[in-house]
Give the backbone structure.
Amino acid sequence: MKDRLFRLFMWGCALIFVVGIGSNLAVVLWIFHLLDLRNMERQANYAQILSTPLTTEVTTSLCQRGLIPASLGSCLLPDFQIHVEDVGTIFRENIQTGKTSYQEVTDMFGEFTRYCEEKNDSRSEFRCDYDISGRGQHVLVYFDNTTEVVRSVRITGCGGGS
């Protein structure tokens, strides 16, 4: 009789253990599902932002100064548009790392400057932050502190990255 009660007790404990793990597993799986849904929503929103056309004023300004690469189309077309996703291409095609100076970048994209760090002798570089799109597609340009020549160009997205 004791042996039978002991086995029944062990089966009961095992059942409680399995049910406990199962319910915790269900909660964990539900949380992962919610995170996945949120990630899919974020990706959809980001894709929508990237496909948004830049304003006519910005497009006209870039076209008038010859800053639109041929790979993006011709400014002469009546329905020509530039999209947020094209911002990186515009910067990469117009700025050459190791060659383009701070003044040249300022001449090309100065009107879109959000922020520029002050030069500091204790650092080897300074950076400027440009925003053509007004939608979070920032371009960070790093300049050598001594020569003021571009060291690197990084395109940031709405959710980060480069």
